[in-house]
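user: Please review this fold.
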Amino acid sequence: MTSRATTPKTTSPKATTLKATTPKKIPSPVENVLPRRFLRQLLFLALGHSERSYGYELAEAVREYGLSVDLAGIYRELRSLEQHGLLSSEWEPSKSGPDRRVYMMTDSGREGRAEAIESLRWARDQLTAALDDASKS
């Protein structure tokens, strides 16, 4: 058996300096339960609760459904839904702060909502079947 001599590694002072970083947040089991791909369907569910909704209200509703998403993501998806004719929006003056954009579902959006509900039911059924199958093993 041959022994190898190892030479100590030298590092520059810069290499050993540690930067102060914010610790990464470890998601709790409840966070991020649903994949982000469900954002559109969950927005449709949230939009069905009232005739008019603000982006922040919709974000809170989506979070209550179990999807963690930032406001920028919500507004991008709302803009996409509007560009596809599924939503309309208008600016509403506010007495205490900046004007706010309010979103309303169009007739096409109501059809899209029905499709979103059906899509979520299908996903639920598929996941239930997979979990039932997994629990048998």
